Amino acid sequence: MLAECLALNSLILNNYCATVRHRISNREKDMLRKILLRTFLGLVALVTAAMLLQMVASETGEVVVVTTDAGGGESATTRLWVVDHADAQWLRVGVEGAGWFGRMTSNPVISMQRGDTTAEYTAVPVPAAISTVRGLMREKYGWRDSYIEFLFGSKAEAMALRLEPL
Fold first, then answer.
1. CATH architecture assigned to 60-165
2. In Å, what is the CA distance from 165 to each residue of 54, 88, 89, 125?
3. Domain boundaries, the chain
4. Which residue of 6, 46, 69, 92 sits 20 to 30 Å from the alpha carbon of 30, by its own alpha carbon?
5. Dihedral angle at the C-alpha atoms of 6, 48, 150, 66, nearest 10 degrees?
6. Residues 82-116 pLDDT 10s
7. For the chain, how big is the Rg over CA atoms in Å?
């Protein structure tokens, strides 16, 4: 990877030199290479830090494990945030294309592990409750919810799901 980066730096430098139509000394080329390499490494560090912060934000606070039917006798688990409101537990899906939501749409019976308790529920979409559930998520998860929204946006197609015990 580093060799590819250095080769790319050389290509960029050679194109730069041809563009400005003057000869750049080896010292200047080395200095430009260092700047490009530091910029590249800085971007890699920034992306890595953003990904790590996203992992910390997603996995701290109360996280439940939802198990959905993946078809063919298989199941799939997803880690999600949950809030309580009006004597019910609520999940939020940010986008209809989420795999767990697609599986749940095909079969709304899910299993959810919350702490030491596992129970089965029917997940019922309640579009009208999304603003309430968003507010509860923001209140409960604070900066984490804000950061995830910053990264992935506040989706217009977000959906609130009420869990009804079986």
1. Roll (2.30)
2. 31, 9, 9, 14
3. 2-56, 60-165
4. 46
5. 140
6. 999 999 999 998 766 678 888 888 899 999 999 99
7. 24
Half-sphere exposure of 166 (CA within 13 A, CB side): 11
Residue 73's identity, in one-letter code, is G
Burial label, 67 (beta-carbon count in 10 A; 0-12, 13-18, 19+): middle
Check residue 96 and give its pLDDT: 60
